[in-house]
Amino acid sequence: MDRRSFLFRSIAPLALAAPVGCTTAVRTRGVREFKLVAMAGQALTDTGKPAIPAWTYGGSVPGPQLRVRQGDRVRVEVTNRLQVPTTVHWHGVRLPNAMDGVPHLTQAPIEPGARFVYEFDAVDAGTYWYHSHFQSSEQLDRGLYGTLVVEEPRPVPVDRDVTWVLDDWRITAAGLVSESFGNTHDMAHAGRIGNTLTVNGSVQDRFAVCAGERLRLRLVNAANARIFGLRFQGHRPMVIAIDGQPVQPHEPEGGRIVVAPGMRCDLVIDAVGRPGERHEVQDVFYPREQYVLMDLAYASGAGAAGRTQPLAALAGNPLPEPDLKDATSHEIVFGGGMMGNLHQALLDGKPTDMRGLLRQGKAWAINGHVSASHHMDPMLRLRLGRTYVLRMHNDTAWHHPIHLHGHAFRVLRRNGQPTRHREWQDTMLMSPREAVEVAFVADNPGSWMFHCHILEHQEGGMMGVVEVA
Question: Which domain holds residue 93?
């Protein structure tokens, strides 16, 4: 589908914005201090139409980018000026359990008018993000998210370091965020897919580049449910990190970078086009809904000299390597949804058929158990310091990006075949009917969420607690 056809179906044009700006921070003895305010604000301010009311951090969507160096102590004071409770989850960050931002599990919700201080060490370099974990499917879709970048001591040499936060919005004809949160159809199918796409909250259709420059592009998927599969026409992006964790630089399979909700991917792109050219960035994940996200628009005039040095791998983060010879394995089956095989599951300890689940706003289960809230008995109890292998099977007709809080895991096999890069991830996309094996050391004590990051699936029952003690 070309841009004109896609825009005809959307409320506003597609696009891209200027890079996300940083907040003002104070460095004191290795401590980086920030202040975030959850407050009413506006989004989609550059559509040529009235901006839409949104929930924001500091008035903007996305919220300010927090940028620190590996090893810094991070202290963030969050003030809630919304009329509803909220929390902040630091997605992908290995931090103390009390700082993880899950309401009723790791902290009490931040009530209207109240404050909470999050404090943790930036142990791992990479691209991370923060977002509300209270009534997530609504609060994220209204705009409560931002990015956290932890700089490496020796970053890859580039001319520009750019962040693109990918999102979609469900906008009504009246120009407002649709209030159709929690509807059964979204929950039991692919989730809340929007009709208006933004990058860094913007709806421009071009991103300016200079011929010859080398870019580090940090992709963050903040959408509730949309999976992006980006293809950069005329360019050969190199993947250097996934979910913040370095990998051996490589071209993505089929030239397509897949970023599911919650995931991040760092690319290095050499601007090999000529001055004045435009090259499409296409989203081709959904075959029947392919469209042009934006153009890479080359400035006219002389370009940069260009970098010719080979691309070296980033230094790894201090993750403990799983001991597969002494690992304990657990089988995990994700079930439910429309066109699935889940006929009955346990909800609040009671066997409930699919009709009964749907009447209570549920449709998904992990190992036959449907989560009713964050108040849950652990689905797994793991011993601190031990290696575990999770053999996961997606027994559904839908994609699921599975996120484990407080840890990163190595992806070992997909459908029985060893992975090429043995990548570390904290949010791993599973295709329908796919089987995936991952391994990790349970080295972070506490009760950790384990859930699908399609937020309607999470709230529809695909959520559990992993206890490490």
Answer: 3-151
The token pair at 437 is 């094996």
Among 132, 151, 170, the domain-final residue is 151
Structure tokens that stand for 277 in this block: 């050219």
How many Cα atoms are found within 13 Å in the side-chain-facing hemisphere of 53?
7
Q: Let me know: does 198 contact 45? Beta carbons within 8 Å.
A: no
pLDDT at residue 427, as a whole number? 98
Gyration radius from the chain CA atoms: 21
What integer pLDDT is reported at residue 22 of this predicted model? 38
Mean pLDDT score, 369-398:
92
Q: Phi/psi of residue 139, each to 5°?
A: -70, -35
HSE (side-chain half, CA atoms, 13 Å) at 408: 27
CA 68 vs CA 22, 63, 97, 179: distances in Å: 10, 16, 21, 36
Both structure tokens of 140: 């994220």
Summarize the confidence of residues 445-467 as an average pLDDT.
97
**What residues does 411 pair with on adjacent strands?**
438
| pLDDT above 90 (res 309) | no
**Do residue 190 and residue 284 come from a single domain?**
yes
> CA dihedral in degrees (334, 368, 133, 62; nearest 10)?
20
Edge-to-edge, what's the strand order for the sheet holding 214-221? 196-199, 160-169, 214-221, 264-270, 238-242, 245-250
Domain-located, residue 316: no
**Same domain membership, residue 65 and residue 17:** yes
Are 238 and 357 in the same domain? no
269 plus 170 within the same structural domain: yes
pLDDT at residue 3 is higher than 60: no
Q: Are residue 464 and residue 351 in the same domain, yes or no? A: yes
- The rounded distance, in Å, linking the Cα atoms of 290 and 288 is 6
> Do 143 and 7 belong together in one domain?
yes
The pLDDT, as a whole number, for residue 201 is: 92
- CATH code, domain with 21: 2.60.40.420
Q: What is the pTM of this model?
A: 0.93
- 343 class by beta-carbon count within 10 Å (0-12 exposed, 13-18 middle, 19+ buried): exposed
Arithmetic mean of pLDDT over the chain: 92
Q: How many domains does the chain have?
A: 3
- At 11 the pLDDT is 37
Mean pLDDT of the 94-101 span: 98
Q: Do residue 267 and residue 144 come from a single domain?
A: no
Does residue 66 belong to any structural domain of this protein? yes
CA angle 436, 442, 445 (to 5 degrees): 135
Q: Which residues contact 98 (CB under 8 A, 6 or more apart)?
A: 106, 107, 446
% of the chain beyond a pLDDT of 70: 92
With respect to residue 311, please indicate whether it lies within any of the assigned structural domains: no
Rounded Cα–Cα distance for residues 37 and 430 (Å): 35
